[in-house]
């Protein structure tokens, strides 16, 4: 027995008391020696060592996350920096639309956002994975407060127009039934010795036992109606307190019905590395990052400046631009170096004198279509009626997803959900519509999942990325082939011009790609400068 | 093409534009008619219809969630209510320990909590499932603000002393590899036609295709090193931006190694109905519910009152109690009815004149052992060093879990994590130790998962539920047999006495059980009173 008068037992006493074997201790030592390998090569914010010659200047095109990261770090390292930005705000695709905002897309359609105070749509990025260290560190540096983003909600819906008479199913039921049937089938195969070569001896028993708990199987390794399966998929009637509170188990789908749901991608949505818990979002909208960054850079950024030409010579780079406050004007800015973060969809339309390899690379990357629709409703019926708090419902209709706000849970008053996040052909079709028609489409399709839509709808806003003036597309779409041929050529510094942005990364469409591509580009540019490439 | 001059297309136009078939619309109608069945029988806060005779009184024992719920609703319905409570605070097991709190356990050991401001340990309940409607509604009613509780963190650890040389593994790697190997094995069995009877025809192809995406299989339905598997389990080197940012895939575990981890329960921890996303916790600690409820009830609660006897007669119930401020005192309180929410572990030690069936039921339920240890560290190294934001690591050592705070992410300064949540034999062993020894054990075992423990440790507090004076146990442990024999007898009103609490529910240990058992008991009591059982 432990000696109660001795509040600090020696390690030996502890080992004795709680039965820790010497083998365990040896393993512990071994574990310490092995260490904990980091899964990322990122080791913290970039540090540019050494100073450039006084006055060395870098002109940065685009005040998105890549451009602002570069400006921030280069200025710190001693460079004279300036950013030219098309919009009248910082952030680029890091952007939130709030009530009072006005947005005009290509083609001229103008929308006035009428969301209530505090509500928003993130037309671009909306979630941050835990391993996107550069984004998280940028938020920390800027003081942007983060809150959890809920990717997976077991109580959200999977909706397939062709299955279950079009009736949406709760994610947890399909997920439990898929796992249950898979576990039952594999158990059967093992018991029939169909996998003798692959699973032998002790492993056979371990796997059978594991599948039982993993798949919530009942007796005889079968996935059946009962407490085990209902403890995953939910009950016909939930357990409660007192008399008459006995739970009633629910009936699992058959294997055939489960397969008919064709819901595999929805089932693993939260298992993909980029969507795993714990994800984050900035409090108040993703655009808080760009907005705060822009404020921190202050006078470094010149807004409403539309780039018209980029021309380098032996001693520097001259960039021509139009002051959008003075239509038709042509101004120029000159610097020793230029870091261009314009999307390739825009850059490929501009005159720029780079070598044939970079030129080919700039033209090699088409941009994805994507459409997001934000819908404001008079009340948060998804919470109040259906107990859905955050997370995403998936559908086979063109809106593809409905995402519920991961903030202000249980609040009264209005709420904004993401009523469409379309890609592919659906996005192309929605892009061809007017904003009002996109909103109507989101309502029409969304009504099939939430019948409350029509009665509760208040107002909406729709962003089709192919019509967004400053990008004309959502994000660069690389293939294995184009990457093999063009990627390195895109990233190599060409004379006095370097490129950065999500398109110059292996994680396109993610903010992490934009920031780390800026780190990489300015790191090499700085080495270049220090090595004496004379301005 | 849509007519851009008409911003509000008719439904017919929309159908044409986006190719919605008549079949789809028919399905939509069918879906609406089918409606969306609620999964719970709970339809909102209880409403007691009809008024009792003026002055009808109910004495409630225990100011936990069951007792306070009953007092709140009975008072509203017109009853005269009073609660006698052992502690000097409301909430019972709904309880958070903060810096400045003092806690004395059975045996006399006293701990002074030295956590920094804002940090806490929840010795009892600590998370709220989305389908625990009664708890969520109670929080809403009281104005207790909720924030997401993170149950699953893919970047947290699974630790098995006997596997991988004791080196903890990231949850995401074991999870991905289990799923991958299961998918590969089942695919193999299907391709060998080993499951011909169970999976036929078109389903065979659907399942094979589904398993490929679900298991992240590569070519030939094999789970191998490559982009597909690394997009689940993480990379050897993460993708990044610029040159030299090419990702390096990680090497999956073999089936044998994956089985050696014996991690099945950790893999499904977030898939159980009670642990599925989205879960919640009150901002500032679970104890905020009890604290706020107690304040709302005010004078209704008499604190520091230790029940010593419960005696009913033909016209009412007399309860004797000791005023803990006056040791040895005996006071009495009389009412027409008594609702007793004392844990059975306490009630079974008290004289109470109920019938033999309820008496047998009161003695039939043993109480679980459970130990929780809160550890304050000088910095949030789990976030800063290991990028673990909330969630739980699992270990086969007696501490069983390490849970990371799901609030104040990325904050500087100190942090408190749950350093042990022991049950079973481990809890019994930890209970036999002094609080200081429990903390030392938590540090010793926890160091095997987080080597930073010793250097960063600041202070701790340990609660062993079998030594908690007001419950002497964690929660009622029912078996199928005891429930069949005793449960209804426990819940039936005996003369003028009714019981409520998590022990009188089908969801023991959960606050939802306590609240819904109170709803059920007072609902029946009220009917009883209205039906003329004369006081």
Automatic annotation (TrEMBL), chains A, B:
It catalyses: L-tryptophan + O2 = indole-3-acetamide + CO2 + H2O. Residues 228-249 are annotated as: Disordered. One of its GO terms (biological process) is amino acid catabolic process. SUPFAM superfamilies: FAD-linked reductases, C-terminal domain, FAD/NAD(P)-binding domain. GO terms for molecular function: L-amino-acid oxidase activity; tryptophan 2-monooxygenase activity. Residues 65-521 form the Amine oxidase domain. It is an enzyme of class 1 (oxidoreductase). Keywords: Auxin biosynthesis. Its EC number is 1.13.12.3. Pfam families: Amino_oxidase. Gene3D superfamilies: 1.20.1440.240, 3.90.660.10, FAD/NAD(P)-binding domain. The keyword Secreted does not apply. Pathway: Plant hormone metabolism; auxin biosynthesis. It comes from the Bacteria. Belongs to the tryptophan 2-monooxygenase family. This is Tryptophan 2-monooxygenase. It comes from Pseudoxanthomonas composti.
């Amino acid at each position: 027995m432990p000696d109660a008068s001795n509040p600090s037992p020696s390690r030996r006493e502890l080992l004795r008391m709680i039965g820790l074997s010497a083998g365990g201790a040896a393993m512990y030592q071994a574990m310490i020696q092995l260490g904990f390998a980091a899964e990322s090569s990122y080791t913290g914010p970039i540090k540019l060592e050494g100073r450039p010659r006084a006055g060395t200047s870098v002109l940065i095109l685009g005040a998105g996350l890549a451009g602002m990261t570069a400006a921030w770090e280069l200025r710190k390292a001693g460079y004279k920096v300036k950013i030219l930005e098309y919009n009248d705000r910082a952030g680029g695709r890091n952007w939130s639309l709030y009530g009072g905002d006005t947005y005009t897309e290509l083609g001229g359609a103008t929308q006035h956002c009428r969301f209530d105070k505090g509500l928003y749509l993130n037309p671009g990025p909306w979630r941050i994975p835990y391993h996107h260290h550069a984004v998280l560190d940028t938020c920390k540096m800027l003081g942007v407060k983060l809150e959890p983003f809920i990717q997976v909600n077991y109580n959200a819906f999977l909706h397939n127009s062709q299955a279950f008479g079009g009736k949406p199913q709760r994610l947890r039921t399909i997920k439990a039934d898929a796992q249950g049937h898979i576990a039952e089938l594999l158990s059967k195969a093992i018991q029939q010795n169909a996998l003798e070569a692959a699973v032998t001896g002790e492993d056979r028993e371990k796997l059978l036992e594991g599948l039982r708990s993993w798949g919530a199987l009942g007796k005889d390794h079968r996935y059946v109606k009962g407490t085990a399966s209902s403890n995953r998929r939910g009950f016909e009637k939930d357990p409660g307190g007192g008399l008459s509170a006995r739970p009633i188990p629910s009936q699992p789908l058959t294997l055939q019905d489960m397969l008919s749901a064709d819901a595999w991608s929805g089932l693993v949505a939260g298992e993909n590395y980029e969507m795993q818990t714990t994800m984050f979002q900035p409090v108040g909208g993703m655009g808080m990052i760009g907005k705060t960054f822009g404020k921190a850079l202050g006078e470094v950024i010149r807004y409403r400046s539309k780039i018209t030409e980029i021309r380098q010579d032996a001693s520097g780079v001259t960039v021509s631009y139009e002051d959008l406050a003075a239509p038709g004007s042509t101004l120029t800015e000159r610097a020793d170096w230029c870091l261009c973060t314009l999307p390739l969809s825009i850059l490929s339309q501009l005159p720029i004198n780079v070598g044939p390899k970079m030129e080919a690379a700039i033209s090699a990357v088409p941009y994805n279509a994507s459409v997001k629709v934000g819908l404001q409703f008079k009340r948060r019926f998804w919470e109040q009626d259906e107990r859905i708090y955050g997370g995403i419902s998936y559908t086979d209709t063109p809106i593809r997803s409905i995402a519920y706000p991961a903030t202000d849970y249980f609040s009264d008053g209005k709420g904004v959900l993401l009523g469409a996040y379309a890609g592919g052909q659906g996005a192309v079709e929605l892009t061809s519509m007017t904003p009002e028609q996109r909103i109507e489409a989101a309502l029409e399709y969304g009504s099939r999942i939430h019948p409350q839509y029509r009665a509760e709808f208040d107002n909406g806003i729709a962003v089709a990325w192919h019509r967004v003036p400053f990008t004309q597309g959502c994000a660069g779409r690389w293939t294995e082939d184009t990457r093999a041929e063009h990627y390195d050529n895109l990233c190599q510094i060409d004379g006095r011009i370097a490129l950065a942005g999500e398109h110059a990364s292996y994680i396109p469409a993610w903010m992490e790609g934009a920031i780390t591509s800026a780190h990489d580009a300015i790191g090499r540019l700085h080495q270049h400068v220090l090595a004496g490439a004379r301005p």
